[in-house]
Amino acid sequence: MLKTTSKIVRVIRLTRLVLHLVSGFIQSLVYPRFSQALQRRMMKNWAVGFLEILNIKLNYTGTPPNADQQQALLVANHVSWLDICVLMAVCPSRFVAKSEIRNWPVIGLLSHNAGTLFIQRAKRQDTLRINKNIATALTNGDRVTIFPEGTTSAGTEIQHFHASLLQAATATDVSLYPVAISYLDVAGKVSKEAAFIDPSLLFSLRQILSQTSIEAKLIFIDPIQGAGKNRRALARLAEQAIANALSLPVVSNKPEKFSDPPNE
């Protein structure tokens, strides 16, 4: 059985985390006024501090998009709400997230002010809107990250990648950067505590705070060129590349979760 943190350590971590969230929210109020380069630096520094408080050790291999590179569409498997922080700590970008996060205390406002693109998953027609927003962000020189699985997993398999949100890659002809994410406990095994499979964010946070440390691992895979490929082909290539990098199985194909707009 893994050793867990003491109650006093959890209280100290939680206190520091609350103060860090408040600091991030205050920064987010002026965030839109700064240059893109400064925004990315602010985002990265805040994420690094967040992970340090939770004693999450971050390691990555491969080559993320160059700091001078403007447009890039990152696609990653989705294990936890921590995914956003670990990606921000290495390669700051805007994220596509479910609209429910917009209503989370503090984090929702912080995410909104930082430029997160929220999608209403229950509305099929919202896919067309969000694809246009992704394309606009990429055209304006932003990096954008999406999680094509559409939900989190336990980190022991790769779920079907939905192709509908990859329309922007074909519309703007940008490179697709697959990123494989995994979390390990102190014994080097897949961390069950890091995975966000319970609907309660508070329960997930308690699980993470109870761990002495968690290792977050990112693998940046060679980019996939969007030119000449449709979104379904891109989804399958990214899905398989991430599964291979993590040596995980891909679950059987499922129907598209979001509406599938025609090529434009």
Describe what this molecule looks like in 3D.
The protein has 264 residues and is an alpha/beta fold. The protein has one domain (7-246): Glycerol-3-phosphate (1)-acyltransferase (3-Layer(aba) Sandwich). It is 39% helix and 16% strand. The chain is built from eight helices and eight strands, in the order H-H-E-E-H-E-H-E-H-E-H-E-H-E-E-H. Strands 1, 2, 3, 4, 5, 6, 7 and 8 form an eight-stranded mixed beta sheet that branches. Helix 1 (7-30) runs antiparallel to helix 2 (36-53) and helix 1 (7-30) runs parallel beside helix 4 (107-113). The longest helix has 24 residues, at 7-30. The termini are far apart.
How are the elements arranged and paired?
Elements (H helix, E strand, L loop, with lengths): L6 H24 L5 H18 L2 E7 L9 E5 L5 H9 L3 E5 L8 H7 L3 E3 L6 H14 L3 E4 L20 H6 L2 E10 L16 H9 L4 E7 L3 E2 L5 H16 L18
Parallel strand pairs: 1-7, 2-5, 2-6, 3-4, 3-5
Antiparallel strand pairs: 6-7, 6-8
